[in-house]
Amino acid sequence: MFANIVVPIDGSSPSDAAVALAVKVASAPDASITIAHVIDPAKLAAVAAPSSIDPNIAIDAARQAGTEVLARAQEAAKAGNHKVTTTLIEGDPVSAVLELATNIGADLIIVGSHGRGGLSRALLGSVAEGILRKSSIPVLVTHAPRAEPTQR
Hints:
Helix content is about 45%, strand content about 20%. By secondary structure, it is of the alpha/beta class. The chain has a single domain, classed as HUPs (Rossmann fold). The longest helix has 23 residues, at about 55-75. It is globular. It starts with a strand and ends in a 10-residue tail after the last strand.
């Protein structure tokens, strides 16, 4: 079954769902889960360039936020009693996740998807879709659980 799982996260509810699913799917007694957060310094610098924000400040803030997101996800994943490691990676998110998965010999990637479509997906891109299209490793895509309708 699945003993070495990579879970890229961004701090969103779909990525939280991916971590929870990884804990359930990791079936081997010695299974390991690697939770990764990717920051793209080139994209951050490009966004900061037109403003008066120093790109280094934006990159440092993204690193700090990424570290916090990873710590929360690692805590949530400990419920499964599996080996859980985290890594903060810099680069293009799709390429970085696929390189990590290949380098550690992952047998599954679990990624959360926001489920955007149409113009918003075209403008924002989809890391989940990029991983799905380019990966030679099996990929499981999940969404955040839908809220239960409230009864009146």
